Amino acid sequence: RVELDWNVGYVFGARDGYTYRRAIGVNGKLPFPSVHVMQGDALVINVHNSLDVPTSIHTHGLFNNGTNYYDGPDMVTQCGIPPGENFTYVFETKDQFGTFWVHGHTRHQEADGFHTPLIIHSRKQPVIDYDEELTMTFEDWYTTEFYVRQEYIESLEDARTLVPNYPRALINGYDGNNTAPITFVPKRRYRLRIICMSVNNWFKFRIPGHKMTIIEADGVESMPLEVDGLSMGPGQRYSVIVTAHKSDEFNYLYNVTSYSPVLLRDAGFKPLVYTGLVKYRDGAPVKTIPAPSDEHLVWPEETAMQVADKQTRLPADRRIELTVNKFIDKHHVLLNALSSSLYKPVLVPTLYTALSMGDLAKNSSVYGPQTNAYVLKHLEVVEIVINNPIGDDHTFHFHGHNVQVIETGPYGNSSTDNRKPVAHQQSELWPMWRDTVQVRAYGFIRVRFRADNPGVWFLHCHLAIHMYNGLAVVFVEAPDVLQQRQSVPEAMVEMCKRQGILTQGNGAGNQGFDLSGLPPAIYLPS
Hints:
The protein has helices at 146-155, 350-356, 464-468, 479-485, 490-498; strands at 2-13, 21-26, 35-38, 42-49, 57-60, 86-92, 98-104, 115-121, 132-141, 168-171, 174-175, 182-183, 189-196, 202-206, 212-217, 220-227, 229-232, 237-243, 252-259, 272-279, 318-323, 325-328, 334-337, 373-376, 381-388, 394-398, 403-410, 425-426, 433-434, 436-439, 443-450, 455-461, 472-477. By secondary structure, it is mostly beta strands. The chain has a seven-stranded mixed beta sheet with strand order 11-10-9-13-18-15-16, with no helix packed on it. Strands 21, 25, 27, 28, 29 and 31 form a six-stranded mixed beta sheet that branches. A five-stranded mixed beta sheet has the order 12-20-19-14-17, with no helix packed on it.
């Protein structure tokens, strides 16, 4: 059991080395310390909210099996912790181990610094033995707070007049140009845990002159796969093995590139390239390695990785097809949907509706059209296809589950943006499992999972702006079994009531299918 006390509050500083601004930290620090536990440990976090708005936390990648109410997303599985109040989360790691992270899941507070690595150390032998491990984190950092930026955009009569606000990059929590060196000792083997904690940008990471062997993705061990570098979207994690050279004659440089597949179409935005020192010896000269173009390097493809436990494809019982849509409103503000309507919170946390509506909980209508709810049967194998016919890349995060990556390929007309079509790729014999998957522009992905974790689970784009704009759905998994096995702790119910938030009934807090009182759902034009 590991117990932590977190006072979540505002801190001030210039994390990027340029802009002094307000951010969110823990116990007065940002970045705040990583969390380390052993496989099977309980992680207890006592949260005090010193912000002036509600907050909540999500352990990204943990299943929270049997404790759905601790999953964290505001108005999906809980009400936020009110300002000035305390709440204790108990996260059971059970059989999970690997590289995860903890972040805020109310008002997109992860975009303002409220996040840190969560490392669950395994009690078993790793796929490849190593001598030492290091954790590296990548973030994009904006000059203004997320909600300040969004409220300003929405106040404009014409969002096209907005002056773009491009982020800088942070490495290990600090300005990417001033990050401490990585220290290697000759002949030693290192495990690098790499976490992409960004909110909109992708990151590429390489150590020229050194090969990387992937052994884990998103907390799941993989068969060893040798690559030249990593390409990571928001929310994704990898562990790679890097073997140090035999001599300390030279030091080297690692390369980190921060870029946005969306903003690459904007002439004012260029990828940001950072270098850092890989130090073998103080004072050793830096050996320059010629840099081939990315097209000539090996990067991880999700279909190319194979799971270490050699589990074969699950046979699908049911298929749900989701398509990314976007719409520009009359003020030229971008709206996103993963269904026909934008995801918007309703008046009752969706978990509370699933627990209080009896047999009607198996009917998706009771949750309100704003939730884009899909009801799943207990233990059925669900195949999810996400089609992306637009020119934006996405990462989608599955709460409560890992998913088998079965297939990726082209979807829609990539010539619209002069894009190279997405290659069609099938998974290998033992498909990789992960909780956050990339869906390329004008592409699709097909994944599968077994509905063995009764609860209410969010599926959303992990780009904060897209999630804010409605790119999400909710899976209500085995509500009949959920009602038998779980009940919300009374402290959480009372926390809602003190904020005037309803805790029973359908999405509007009424009985049956009476959804009066809900704000109207926003449907995208067909």
